[in-house]
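Q: Sequence in, structure out?
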Amino acid sequence: MKSILAAASILLSGFALLSEAHISFRYPCPRRGPYAECPQGPWDQIDYNIRSPVGTHGAINNPICKWSSSFPGVRPVFTAGQTVNANMDIGAYHKGGSCQWALSYDNGQTWVVFQDKLKTCMADASNGVSYTLPFTIPANAPSGPAILNLFWNNNEGNRELYSSCADVVIQGTNGGTLSGVVPLIANYGPNSPLIKELVLSGGDYGQAYFAARKPITITVPRQSSAKRRSLNRTN
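A: Exactly. Output:
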């Protein structure tokens, strides 16, 4: 009985946290997300605080992807050049912010930003309402398992960084390179760049920081036919 009550208490507190937090992917499924349509694992390993920021300018709360892996399950397969509508779960939209879409093929060690929307990303959203946010996989994206990440710095409120990581499979070129820029990691601990609230900065959303992002090119090795077939089924 005690274990059941403990489980119920954690679940209820988790739902309370989720209702008070800010943004997250709902589709594609974020790592260890609490959503019914996502791969599920032990109840005490589900992230019911999935919409919370990974850090503020004052502190680093979590690693960029929070979790080192997803629960086992089917990964969504995206084709190079495909436009995908991400479904965002929004608790508080903070009058929008700056979005950077990035891919990693080495479990988050290296990120390549391939698309961004600065200052106005999700500015027309509403609190407590799901939101569709399109992105396009690069036409030359290499094939393989990858992490899709949405970095988001909010315009209003505490100086925060949000990061939604989803494990996906890319169908594209079998081996090759992907070029873009290194993401700006701002408002993520006291040693990171500070992007001030938009209303207090005279409309400066961190333009100079975004303009200074360094170019990057990564190389993804070729995969065997058997490996590609297995990735297109179940992780």
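The first strand starts at residue 23 and ends at 27.
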